[in-house]
Amino acid sequence: MQAPNHVAIIMDGNGRWAKSKGFPRTVGHAKGAQNLEDMLYIADELGIKYLTVYAFSTENWKRSEDEVMALMNLFRQYLRNGFKKAARNNVRIRVIGYRPGLPQDLQELADEIEEFSKDNTGLQFTIALNYGSRDELIRMMQSAAREVAAGNLKPEEIDEEYVSSHLDTKDLPDPDLLIRTSGEQRVSNYLLWQLAYTEFYYTDVHWPVFGKAELQKAIEWYNTRDRRYGNAK
Ligand code: FPP
Q1: Ligand 1 atom nearest to 29, measured from its CA
Q2: How far, in Å, is the centroid of ligand 1 from the Cα of 127?
């Protein structure tokens, strides 16, 4: 079984999992964070090179103040613990999304962990935090327009290569497989440009309980696909 090089995940269903157990939503997020931790090692073990997860979207600010605060605290804790774990497991951590929109200390933590782990050659792990694909594309377009206006760039130089190398994901190959847990079949403003040729896998399993067997099932399904486009095997 060949593992996809780059797997992107929409970790959905923390809230529904918590509700089904009679817990508050924030317990679902904490359990989801724990599961993500486990998933890093599982992905690495299964031969996945790049893992990119949707942790907080530009739309998620509309959730209740309490929930947003609980999520930000979870990200803080996760990134702080990430230094030791990245060092121990040779994991490189990147954070994509509109960083200036995050609390100052989270911006600093993201800068620091990227710098700290930049030479690690194991799993290439990317967290999308305050990420929205339309926002990412607009930022790229505005910056290209500024370059054109300044006379540093010709409009015809804006091609696929230019766009791909000016998005937040400029250092990552396009995903081969997108997994969305918990039953929804939407792309929810995630990696719109990058997913052009990606295979989509959906499952009803909620993120907090999406384990190794589930990831293996997704990879098996991926192996049945006839990959003629994009990063074809
Ligand atoms: C979707 O579940 C999940 C999120 C909005 C947040 C994802 C965050 C985590 C998995 C926490 C860990 C991440 C890091 C990087 C520490 P939902 O709340 O939309 O669930 P629902 O659709 O069932 O309500």
Answers
A1: 11
A2: 12
In this prediction, residues 130-153 reach a mean pLDDT of 98
Distance CA(73)–CA(212), nearest Å, equals 27
Is residue 224 pLDDT above 70, yes or no?
yes
Q: What is the pLDDT of residue 226?
A: 76
The answer to whether residue 81 is catalytic is no
Q: Which residue from 16, 17, 20, 29 has its CB within 8 A of the most atoms of ligand 1, so it is best to mutate?
A: 29
Say what the pLDDT of residue 230 is. 56
223 Cβ neighbours under 8 A, 6+ residues apart: 1, 2
Those residues whose C-beta lies under 8 Å from the C-beta of residue 192, and which sit 6 or more positions away, are: 133, 134, 137
